[in-house]
Amino acid sequence: MKSSKIFKFATLIVSAVFAVTFASCSDDDDNTSAIKFNPSTVSVVIGETQKVLMSGGDGTYTAKSSDATIATVSVVKDTVFVTGVKAGKATVLVTDSKNISGSLNATVVAALTTDKSEASVAVGKEATVTVSGGTTPYTVTSKDNKIATATIKDSQLTIKGVEAGSTTITITDKDKRTVTVAISVTK
């Protein structure tokens, strides 16, 4: 009976020591966490700027691009702005005043374009348009499939005339950028 009380007392002491050890914090500890980004990666067109929200760290941020010839960066409060300079990839390193950091992958792409802004095709015939830039894969939709249909393979857009009239074909890249081609179908 006496050994049972001693065991319980010893267990209580050991538990208290562990609780104090795990609950205590040194003066140099802080409650900040690694810097996170929303979105977690960014794709930006040459000459354009994308904003990315940040969280974590102490809120006093500085940012640097791994390659300023590809992407430049600036910070305003909890937002980093990534501007595309030329096509390529760069890493954005953000650090706070306590050296807590996070990195963001940035891809800079050429604008989504076509070699023609309008095309004419006869009923039952096909016309082609070349798509470039943006981020593959591309998808395509016709505003009116009764007038013209469209398919895309790699960077080649094929338009087939169905019925005389006018419509538009919209090409969308992986990052939801779009470009539109005006279509005129003749008899």
Rg over CA atoms: 29 Å
What does the overall shape look like?
A: elongated
Helix content: 10-25%
SS elements, strand count: 16
Q: Widest sheet: strand order? A: 1-3-6-5
C-alpha termini separation: 106 Å
Whole-number mean pLDDT: 89
Largest sheet: 4 strands, antiparallel
Summed up, the helix count is 1
Which stretches are poorly predicted, pLDDT < 50 over at least 5 residues? 23-29
**SSE string, helices as H and strands as E:** HEEEEEEEEEEEEEEEE
Summarize the SSE layout with pairings.
Layout (H helix, E strand, L loop, with lengths): L1 H22 L12 E3 L2 E5 L3 E7 L5 E5 L5 E6 L2 E6 L3 E9 L4 E9 L3 E2 L3 E5 L3 E7 L6 E4 L5 E6 L2 E6 L3 E8 L5 E9 L1
Question: Can you describe what's shown?
Answer:
It contains one helix and 16 strands. It has one helix spanning 2-23; strands spanning 36-38, 41-45, 49-55, 61-65, 71-76, 79-84, 88-96, 101-109, 113-114, 118-122, 126-132, 139-142, 148-153, 156-161, 165-172, 178-186. The chain has a four-stranded antiparallel β-sheet, with no helix packed on it. Strands 2-8-7-4 form a four-stranded mixed β-sheet, with no helix packed on it. It has a four-stranded antiparallel β-sheet with strand order 9-11-14-13, with no helix packed on it. The longest helix is centred in the first third of the chain and has 22 residues, at 2-23. The protein is elongated, with a radius of gyration of 29 Å. The N and C termini lie far apart (106 Å). The model is unreliable at 23-29 (pLDDT under 50).
